[in-house]
Amino acid sequence: MSHMIEARQLTKRYVNERTGREVLALDHVDFTIAAGEFLCLVGPSGCGKSTFLQMVAGLEQVTEGTLTINGKPIAGPGADRGMVFQSYALFPWRNVIENIRFGLEIKGLSKAEMNEIAHAAAHQVGLHGFEHAYPKELSGGMKQRVGIARALANDPPVLLMDEPFAALDAQTREMLQEELLSLWQGANRTVLFVTHSVQEAVYLGSRIAIMTARPGRIKTVIDVGLQHPRDITAAAFGELMKPVYAALKEEVLKAAVSARALA
Amino acid sequence: MSDRPNTARVLALGALGVLLLIVVPWTLAVLSGVRPIILPSGWQLLDAADFLMRTDVLLHSTWVSLVRVNLGFLLAVVTAVPLGIVLGRSPLLFAAFEPVVESFRFVIPFAWIPLAILWFGTSEFGKLFIIWYAGFFVLLLPTIEAVQGIDKDLIAAARTLGATRWTIFWRVAFPAIVPDLLLAMRVAFAVCWIAILAAELVASRAGLGYMITDARELLQTEVVIIGMVVIGCIGAIYNALFIRLQRLVQY
Amino acid sequence: MMAGSDDIRLRPRRGGALRPAAGSPQSRRRRRGAADLRARMQALAIRLALPLLLIALWAVAARSPGVAPVLPGPAAVLATLWQMTISGELFVHVAASLQRAFAGFVVAGIIGVAAGLAMSQSRLVNDILAGPVELLRPISSIAWIPLAILWFGIGFNSVVFVIVASCIFIILLNTLAAAQNVDRDLVNAALTLGATPRQIFTKVTVPSAMPGIMLGLRIAMTGAWGGVLIAEMIATREGLGYMIVRAQASYRPDIVIGGMIVIGFVGYALNWLFLALQRRITHV
To answer: Which residues in chain B are closer than 8 Å to A20, comparing Cβ atoms?
Structure first.
């Protein structure tokens, strides 16, 4: 398997605007993500998992070390890495199709091409019949479908997802998880999925990377050997969740202790 | 946005902007021989300021305007806020008052000036009426909205803790609307300040509005500009005071 | 007065669960329809009561000897308005006022939005313009009137100048705030979809700031309408402001009150038109 995304001694420091104190968010992270894999990144809140994702997206600068995609250093955001946001980040003044079309407009496609691709993407995520609705008229689940379709319309080799289902209710979340899996299985696409839910990570990921409390490092990486579709009620599923839970819990406690020490 | 604001830089560039966009064009205009009636020079302004201070015209005008605006504003507060609280609490009374409030809201305060003259002449009462009217609606609607917007769970929580109606009003509802009230008062005062100047401009023998319109008739542009500066300063000072108050009650 | 008043509801509660079901669903629906109609009539009556009472009070007061000379009754005012409408005099004044308000509003709108957007995009522009803006902003529009007359004389230019002064800062500051507060995630989303800084500005910043800009324009429009009236009272020979001031001087309270009604009506219509326009443009 070839390396799609590779971090070598990746370090991120930034200055907290409110306190003026320097924060070490990521500390010499070594990590690779293979082409076509579905990697779930879990960790206690504030551990830098979102920072890592934003750096891969090119939205945050690298402080030290290297971060490459297909062997080339990431210099900034680009259409080769689609991103899905927890807040959906839909343009409220554009309807569903116009939202999905955004990246295609940037590419400068013809109107006919844009509409064809956008409608196909809308159809693919189950937005048929909602093409002309505006975001404020949609439920959270439908909004995130638009967010996914918008990222997919650009056909990026890498899909970055920042806790995309965290704000949804349980039923909607399960439905979208399943749909996301079938979208991923169809295409040879690399997914980097940040979540704080162990069950979500075990349900979706081919591998799960667990990060330490701040400063963030990769604590362990666990291979999920289960075939899709996975049964969350199966004993094997529960067995797989145990080590992830244990590792995560240790880090959450550490984060709580250091937070108390700071306060 | 990302780097912290550098106060010295902001002040320096702000001063540069004032210099480039106001001082330099003004100086050039004066040097190129524009008549003092259009733009007086800095010296002429200082002379006029000196004269105004010695004759106490400026102080007296400022005093008159300040007394009027404060009285009118207070009158607006003590009438609009209680009515707003009542209307905010009672859907029935709100429905009854809304059409009247909505209609009068669009009859801007300036439109009342001629009628106020007809009714009250150029007496103080007419001016107070204009200021009160200007402030009243600006205060009333936000007060109603603030009361209607009080978190129902907050009231319910207080009730389950055994609070009486009176306690709920003073300890829960009133503190909840104070920030909105202060914001409304800040806006209302600014509107009152505009209204008194307008009334003085059209129908008065005293006050800052009268002073600048009188100076205009006498072609004393220096006095007009000094009056504008004083008007601006008073507006800014009150604005800053209200912002201070608002900060005090930000929870 | 306050106690218990919040228990009165203008509409009956729907679907009372405790009431035993009577008759077929259809008849129940009809009965509820009748109750709804009654509730609606009741609500209408409540809304109309106070305005009618005020008009009645006005009519009675206008008949009392002490007040009559300065307060013509509603009928007299309407008659005057009607006469001025037929003679076309009213139209001349309304048109003059609207024309000036519109001219000043457009000038202030173009300068204010352009400057606000420029300030939102560049730290340097922002810091340089902030000085003059903060210096001139507190000077109320009214205070500019004497200076405007000294500069431009009595007439159109003076009035337009005062209107620009009365609305430009509201427009500028609302534009600036709206363009600075664009949701960071929206910008990030556009970036990850491949947008350039210029595309971010045209495709994200401007449309995202649109509701804020429109709000500023709408507040400014009310300011422009006020500005035109007060400026016309002093610095012109026609327009609604001039009309009511002249009527006051020539002791015609009917024209003064009629003019006030027209002023309120035009203000209301402008606000309504603007809201309709805003809904069409922003979708938010």
So the answer is: 4
| Domain A3-80+156-262 architecture | 3-Layer(aba) Sandwich (3.40)
In order, the DSSP letters of A111-153 are: HHHHHHHHHHHHHHTT-TT-TT--GGGS-HHHHHHHHHHHHHH
Domain with C55, as residue range(s), is 25-71
**Cα–Cα distances in Å, from C118 out to A175, B11, B230, C123, C172?**
45, 19, 30, 9, 10
Separation between Cα atoms, residue A83 and residue A100, nearest integer Å: 13
pLDDT over 90, % of chain A: 60
Q: What's the total number of domains in chain C?
A: 2
Domain assignment present for residue C19? The answer is no
Q: How confident is the model at residue C21 (pLDDT cuts 50, 70, 90)?
A: very low
The ipTM of this complex is: 0.89
Closest chain B residue to A20, measured at CA: B4
Q: Please name every residue paired with A194 in a beta bridge, in sequence order, or none if there are none.
A: A41, A162
Residues C86 and C185 in one domain: yes
Regarding whether C251 and C114 lie in a shared domain, the answer is: yes
Determine the distance in angstroms separating the CA of C113 from the nearest CA of chain A, rounded to an integer. 19
Q: Are A198 and A244 in contact (CB under 8 A)?
A: yes
Phi, psi of A135 (to 5 degrees): -50, -40
Tell me if chain A has a CB within 8 Å of the CB of C78.
no
* CA dihedral of A187, A192, A196, A202, whole degrees rounded to 10: 50
User: What is the band of B168 on the pLDDT scale with cuts at 50, 70, 90?
Assistant: confident
Asked if residue C147 has pLDDT above 50, the reply is yes
Tally of domains in chain B: 2
Which of C183, C193, C208 minimises the CB distance to A106?
C193
Closest-CA residue in chain C for B117?
Answer: C248
Same domain, C185 and C253: yes
- The helix/strand/coil state of A231 is coil
Q: Structural domain of residue B16, as residue ranges?
A: 1-34
Residues C29 and C146 in one domain: no
Tens of pLDDT, residue by residue over A37-83, are 999 999 888 788 899 999 999 999 999 999 999 989 999 999 999 99
CA atoms within 13 A on the CB side of A143: 20
Cβ contact A20–B4 (<8 Å): yes
Instruction: Say which amino acid occupies C202.
Output: T
Same domain, B134 and B203: yes
pLDDT digits (tens, 9 = 90+) for C176-229: 999 999 999 999 999 999 999 999 999 999 999 999 999 999 999 988 999 999
Is C14 within a domain?
no
CATH number at residue B78: 1.10.3720.10
CATH 3.40.50.300 placement within chain A = 3-80+156-262
Q: Are residues B181 and B156 in the same domain?
A: yes
Q: Is B4 near chain A, with CB under 8 Å?
A: yes
Q: Which residues of A touch B2 (CB under 8 A)?
A: 17
Total number of residues shown for chain C: 284
SS3 call for A67: strand
Residue B21 shares a structural domain with residue B132: no
